[in-house]
């Protein structure tokens, strides 16, 4: 009586099951990658350079054959039904392919012809995607003169020409300045609001955190963790106390780390040069003993802070390293 009974679960928009890829040269780029993306979600593959993100994405868009496993997009098998898959998806590649002499609009016209859109329909569609990505005012300028952010917007507009139900974006904001990144995030949210399912790759923690409904953390060709950013952060439990020692105490870091690892309420300690990140159940109760250990080991403290787990803490916890080791 007015109660919605949940029927059979709605099929995922994207499903990867045990995907693997060994390139002809012998590099294993993906090993047993599995995840599902629900219709209308923004899903992120987060991982460092060489993790296997582009490889996974290229399997899903049917241009790369997996060595093992299988994948479906909107219920269609990417190996068995590539043509049907391609008719339903859009793709924004990692490397932009912008011609130097064409205007933004001409790029889109070329693409519309490639997709066999009728001319009248194409013109309307082109105007729509240009305004969707905020490029209408630059449409008739030569794309060569666009800024990095504008070029990326044109890439996204290109991916939208076929009116995709699922859009794949490889590093949508790589190398952009902060303002352009925020604008692209807005456009991606707008696409989501229109019901488009989006799978993107990124190695920006804040992009994964703020833009994605759910993420899979990928490292060395494997999924290390999966969930919404807030679930993943909450899943770590406890907070992070971060100690910065005097650089002169570098040799004492390991001893201090061992001393702190044994304390009650301490869940994990990771060190990077003169910085110790300590995951604790409660900073208030653990801090006095931690500070005593610092003194007992003869270390000088330069800085101490504590915070709720952030996505960089999640990444570290599941992969044992920072996403960008500088
Ligand atoms: N065509 C190819 N032939 C051989 N090896 C490849 C090929 N493409 C990628 N690789 C290797 O596969 C691994 C994964 O590469 P991939 O491009 O999928 O990583 P990624 O996560 O997208 O990295 P990035 O963040 O740098 O874009 C890397 O070791 C890479 O060198
Ligand atoms: Mg890549």
What is the radius of gyration? 23 Å
Q: Give a short account of the largest sheet.
A: 6 strands, mixed
Number of strands: 14
Mean pLDDT: 91
CATH topology of the largest domain: Rossmann fold
What's a quick, concise take on this entry?
This protein is of the alpha/beta class and 326 residues long.
Task: Describe the overall structure.
By secondary structure, this protein is of the alpha/beta class. The protein has 2 domains: about 210 residues, P-loop containing nucleotide triphosphate hydrolases (Rossmann fold); about 70 residues, Alpha-Beta Plaits (2-Layer Sandwich), CATH 3.30.70.100. Helix content is about 35%, strand content about 25%. It has 11 helices and 14 strands. The strands form 3 sheets. Strands 6-7-8-3-9-10 form a 6-stranded mixed beta sheet, with helices on both faces. It has a 4-stranded antiparallel beta sheet with strand order 2-1-4-5. The N terminus is likely disordered. The protein binds adenosine-5'-triphosphate and magnesium ion.
Quickly list its features:
four-stranded antiparallel beta sheet; binds adenosine-5'-triphosphate; Alpha-Beta Plaits; 26% strand; Rossmann fold; 35% helix; elongated; binds magnesium ion; 326 residues; disordered N terminus; alpha/beta; 11 helices; 14 strands; single chain
